[in-house]
């Protein structure tokens, strides 16, 4: 049986995601009816297709295909956790993940939306879960954490195989201790 999300391959085949120099976000070429770009990063862009709205399609630039393989392996290891999107499968240059609604912490700061302390606790629990899977929770920042019904959901696991601590989350937690009652 063919998964319902497979019909999006045709639309994705008419999109091109080009990597830019100096760690700038990718550029997306092509405009397909009912296919919406909902996020852009330095290696990939994320799309949502009207016919299958419960899925998100992370489409990688040609230069970042090795990162797709890495991220696919990480999502496989994180299966079953409520702290991360669900992984459903992949194509040549994309991953299929659950679409996750909600505002990012970045959006909340811009719009003056209260960030519940539970979100911070959820990210801390997610980081512990990642460590228990033998991975390294890195690159967790304001744009990679969503608030869903007062709970936290972590997006973008692409750096979880790298070593070292980038301290991004620790700096945010320090600010929440100071500013969030």
Tell me what the structure shows:
With 181 residues, the protein is α+β, with helices and mostly antiparallel strands. The chain contains five helices and ten strands, in the order H-E-E-E-E-E-H-E-E-E-H-H-E-E-H. The protein has helices at 8-12, 65-77, 105-111, 117-132, 168-179, and strands at 16-18, 27-29, 35-40, 44-49, 55-60, 87-90, 94-98, 103-104, 145-148, 151-154. The protein has a five-stranded antiparallel β-sheet with strand order 3-4-5-7-6. Strands 8-9-10 form a three-stranded antiparallel β-sheet. Strands 1-2 form a two-stranded antiparallel ribbon.
List keywords for this structure.
three-stranded antiparallel sheet; Phosphorylase Kinase, domain 1; Transferase(Phosphotransferase), domain 1; 5 helices; alpha+beta; 181 residues
Summary of the model, kept short:
With 181 residues, the protein is α+β, with helices and mostly antiparallel strands.
Layout of secondary structure:
Elements lengths: L7 H5 L3 E3 L8 E3 L5 E6 L3 E6 L5 E6 L4 H13 L9 E4 L3 E5 L4 E2 H7 L5 H16 L12 E4 L2 E4 L13 H12 L2
Antiparallel strand pairs: 1-2, 3-4, 4-5, 5-7, 6-7, 8-9, 9-10
Strand residues, percent: 15-25%
Looking at how many chains there are and whether they match, the oligomeric state comes to single chain
Outline, from the CA principal axes?
globular
Tally of DSSP helical segments: 5
- State the distance separating the first and last CA atoms: 51 Å
Provide the residue-averaged pLDDT: 91
Q: How are the strands of the largest sheet arranged?
A: 3-4-5-7-6
**Number of discrete domains:** 2
CATH topology assignment of the largest domain: Phosphorylase Kinase, domain 1
The structure class reads alpha+beta
DSSP strand count: 10
Q: How is the main sheet built? A: 5 strands, antiparallel
